[in-house]
Structures are given as C-alpha cells and as structure tokens.
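Subject: mismatched residue count in predicted assembly?

I count 202 residues in my input, but I want to confirm that the predicted structure covers every chain. Input:
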Amino acid sequence: MLIIGIGGGTGSGKTTVVNKIISESPPGEVTIISQDSYYKDLSHLDYESRTKVNFDHPNSIDFTLLCGHLAELRKGASIEQPVYSFVEHNRTDETVTTHPKKVIVVEGILILTDPSIRDLFDIKIFVHADSDERLIRRLKRDIAERGRDLEEVLSRYQNTLKPMHQQFIEPTKEFADIIIPNNRYNTVAVDIVRTIINERLS
Ligand SMILES: Nc1ncnc2c1ncn2[C@@H]1O[C@H](COP(=O)(O)OP(=O)(O)O)[C@@H](O)[C@H]1O
Ligand SMILES: Nc1ccn([C@@H]2O[C@H](COP(=O)(O)O)[C@@H](O)[C@H]2O)c(=O)n1
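Triage response: the counts match. Full output below for your records.
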C-alpha cells in the first residue's frame, strides 16, 4: 500500500489533482481521504458559534481520529469516514465506509502540518497556486457549491484564511517531495505523479 499526502492552500487545486489521478488509475486502485471529513465535531456549539470557528487552524482538525483511521487502513481494515457539511459547519451523522486500496490519497490544506500524519505518508505533495488565483477560485467555488456569499468569503479570507495560510500552510512546502505548480491545469505533473505511483507499486 502507498499512502500519499497532498497539501496546499485552499483553491490551489488539490481536489482537482486527486480527481485527475483517480480518473487515470485502474478502477478500484485509489481511495481518497479528505481532511475536511476530519474537522472536529462541533455539535456542542450552536450554529452562530460554529460560523465563527477558525477552520484554517490545525487545532480545528481531529488528527487523532485521522491518524487512527490511516493506521487501520494500513492494516487492511475498512473505516467509517465521517461526512462533513460545509452548510452546517459540522460533521453530519453519516459516515462513508472506506475500504483499503493499493493507493490511499489524503488531501487537505493542513495535512502536512502534523508530524505524526506526515510520518505516515510515503509521498508528500504540495500543490501551489498564487494567492490571487486561489482567492478567485475560492470565491467562485464557495458561492456556487458551499452556500457562501461574497462578503462571507472575503471576510473569512482577510481574517483567517490569509494569516493561517502564511503561518501554517505555506511553511509545509518544505516537507514536500514534489511541488506541483497549478496556476494553470498541470497535466504533466499529474502524469509524473501517476508514473511514480506505478513505479512504487511495481
Ligand atoms: N489549474 C486550475 N485552473 C483553473 N481552475 C482550477 C484549477 N485547478 C482547480 N481549479 C478550480 O478551482 C476551484 C478549487 O479547486 P479545488 O480542486 O477544489 O481546490 P482545493 O481542493 O485545493 O481547495 C474548483 O472550482 C476547480 O475547478
Ligand atoms: N465549515 C467550514 C469548514 C471549512 N471551511 C473552509 O474550507 C477550506 C478547506 O477546504 P478546501 O477544499 O478549500 O481545501 C478552509 O480554508 C476553510 O476556511 C469553511 O469555509 N467552512
């Protein structure tokens, strides 16, 4: 089994890169674990309080559960991956049964910040896009898919996203084995990652 960690700022294109890797892999070979599924359970807070949480700080992630789940998958056991609701700002009651496969891809903005998770990765990748590109993509995506409005995205960007990116996310570039420049769609980089996966698995 190969466990790959993919970090990088919001809107850099991590999910898009992962989907491309999957679409170019034999069916059933790759499992995705999203860091978003592992936001801490905030059921003890009301909705208003949840909207004020800093979701770009490493403390917002349940790394203990994520680490435990990766260890289970490594042992060949299936896990119940939590399902997150961006609309509710909380985990739902649902889970998705996730089976171990040859390749496990773990993606998320903060995934390379935690030393114990980093140790579990066979390959560490950082997806880079310039901050103006990322903000534009984030605005479009959050309004179209995550139920946000312009004011909300911009205020989150100024108050938490930008400072947290500078403090916690950008520095994790130094841990990466591969940095993918993704200001434009980078098919060559995806091909290279696919080749590395094939080599490691053969
Ligand atoms: N290279 C790219 N050029 C233009 N748009 C992109 C590129 N990569 C991703 N996008 C778009 O930007 C948005 C955010 O991409 P996504 O993969 O969700 O980023 P992340 O998972 O890093 O937050 C999506 O709407 C996606 O279609
Ligand atoms: N309730 C939440 C939880 C997280 N976010 C934002 O999601 C971003 C991470 O997801 P990506 O797919 O963009 O990597 C992160 O920057 C959080 O600010 C949110 O808006 N609401």
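The chain is about 40% helix and 20% strand. Marking this ticket as 'not a bug'.
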